[in-house]
Each structure stands twice: as C-alpha cells, then as structure tokens.
C-alpha cells in the first residue's frame, strides 16, 4: 500500500512532463541538437508477475546537431508475489544516437542508436540481469500531418558469448502520434521483444495509449496506460513523466 501511495503521490508532484517520445517506449529519430540538454524523469506502475513502481532519470546531451549521448539511471520498488520484496537501483544505461537522414522528401528520417546497459544493479535481489548488455537499434520516423509514424527495429545481446543460456533478443516498436492541436498529441504503440525459438506468448508484446501536452517550448506533459498482448507481459501499466529542455 505504501508503494501504491508513493506512486500516485509522484504522479501529482511530478505531473508527466516529457518530450515527443514520451509516454512511448518507441524511440523517434530526432536528436536534441548541438549544445542541447534534456532532463527526463519518469514514473511507472506495473501490475504483473510482481507489482512494481519504477522511477528513472535520464539526461541527454547533444554533441553535434545529429549526434546525442544519454545516460539513464532507473530505480524500482518491487512488491514480490512470491519471495522477498526489494528496492534499489537498476542497471544504468549509456547510449548514443546518430541521425543520418533528415528532412528527406522520399525516405523517412533515420537514426542508428547504440546502448550499453551495465551490470551495476544487484541481480541477487532481482534488480539486474547480472551481465552487461549491448543493443543496436534502427529508428525511422515519418511525419504525415497530422500524423507522425515511428518504427524501431533492434537487436540486444549479452557480453558473455560463451554462455549457452544467453538468448539474444530482437526488439521492435511501432508508434503513431496524432496532433490534436498545437499543444496535445495523442499517441499509441505496439512494442515488444522476441527470441525466435520461443512461441509468441513466451515473448513480450504489449500496447500503450496516451497523450502528451506541451506547456511551452521546453516542457511537455504526458500520461500513458498499457496492457498485455502476449501472456509474457504484465496485465497493465501506467506511466507518467517529466522532461525539461535546457
């Protein structure tokens, strides 16, 4: 109950600020631009195999107009239905995104991102994977006013290549934004990951619906609710966050 109250308190105190990608997990091809900085805070409640309240702080900085670097520090409170409850920092992630096609009349805006997820969290307490992970992701965005479409196709692998239990993962996300007016965007997505030798319901696949609301050029609010498509995903989740452009 205390974790639930903490989650709803966070929604009130930090009322869902975000840039264009939130509340979507699907990334867009844009970068923050040279010298730009974005601070993003997110809160998420997940009801599934365990009940979990997660929070994360991400900082993105533009090295060039078409290249940015980011670090994400997540924290989770896990209410285990079986076993012991736990809370603490999750694995910290570092990433870079390079935008190599922009404003082309024929081809979608295209970017390539690389992420390194450390093994910094305590995996004995269920807070981390226990091994570093590397991800390569292709990101494609196409505006067709009043819509914008985003497609992510990625691949994640672990550092220990000799471990036969390692299962490299294909990731995907398909998202659409609808510009209701100058301030409000409605958003929806289907996203997940897949180990090819597994059946569909043993892989992650979920849907999310939500909106974001621009207060001004630097601050945007967002809120989203998600549900399972495959049985491997949680029953539902609720997310909200804050991103401030500097």
Written overview of the protein:
- By secondary structure, the chain is mainly beta.
- It contains 1 helix and 13 strands.
- The protein has one domain: Porin, CATH 2.40.160.
- The protein has a 12-stranded antiparallel barrel.
- Strand 9 (169-179) and strand 10 (184-194) form a beta hairpin.
- It is globular, with a radius of gyration of 18 Å.
Helices and strands, in N-to-C order? HEEEEEEEEEEEEE
CATH homologous superfamily grouping: monomeric porin ompg
Note the main sheet.
12 strands, antiparallel, barrel
- Quickly give the CATH architecture: Beta Barrel
Distance between the termini: 36 Å
CATH class: Mainly Beta
Average pLDDT value?
86
Task: Count the E strands.
Answer: 13
- Spatial sequence of strands, sheet with the most strands: 1-2-3-5-6-7-8-9-10-11-12-13
Q: Report the CATH topology name.
A: Porin
Can you count the helices? 1
Task: Note the overall shape.
Answer: globular
Poorly predicted regions are: 1-20
* Rounded Rg: 18 Å
Question: How many independent structural domains?
Answer: 1
β content, as a range? over 45%
The helix content is under 10%
Q: Structural class of the secondary structure composition?
A: mainly beta
Based on the model shown, name its key terms:
Porin; 1 helix; mainly beta; 246 residues
Short description:
With 246 residues, this protein is mostly beta strands. The chain has a single domain, classed as monomeric porin ompg (Porin, Beta Barrel). The protein contains one helix and 13 strands, in the order H-E-E-E-E-E-E-E-E-E-E-E-E-E.
């Amino acid at each position: 109950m205390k974790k639930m109250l903490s989650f709803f308190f966070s929604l009130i105190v930090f009322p869902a600020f975000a840039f264009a990608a939130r509340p979507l997990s699907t990334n867009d091809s844009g970068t923050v631009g040279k010298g730009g900085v974005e601070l993003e805070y997110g809160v998420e409640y997940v009801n599934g195999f365990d009940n979990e309240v997660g929070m994360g702080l991400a900082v993105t900085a533009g090295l060039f107009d078409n290249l940015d670097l980011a670090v994400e520090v997540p924290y989770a409170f896990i209410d285990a239905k079986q076993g012991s409850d736990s809370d603490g920092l999750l694995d910290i992630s570092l990433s870079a995104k390079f935008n190599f096609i922009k404003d082309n009349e024929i081809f979608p805006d295209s970017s390539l991102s690389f992420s390194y997820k450390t093994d910094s969290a305590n995996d004995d307490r269920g807070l981390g994977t226990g091994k570093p992970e590397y991800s390569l992701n292709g990101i494609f965005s196409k505006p067709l006013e009043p819509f914008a479409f985003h497609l992510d196709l990625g691949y994640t692998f672990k550092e220990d290549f000799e471990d036969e239990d390692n299962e490299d993962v294909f990731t995907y996300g398909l998202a659409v934004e609808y510009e209701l007016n100058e301030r409000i965007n409605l958003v929806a997505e289907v996203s997940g990951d897949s180990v090819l030798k597994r059946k569909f319901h043993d892989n992650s696949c979920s849907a999310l619906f939500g909106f974001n609301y621009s207060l001004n050029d630097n601050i945007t609010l967002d809120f989203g609710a998600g549900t399972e498509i495959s049985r491997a995903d949680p029953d539902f989740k609720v997310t909200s966050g804050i991103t401030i452009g500097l």
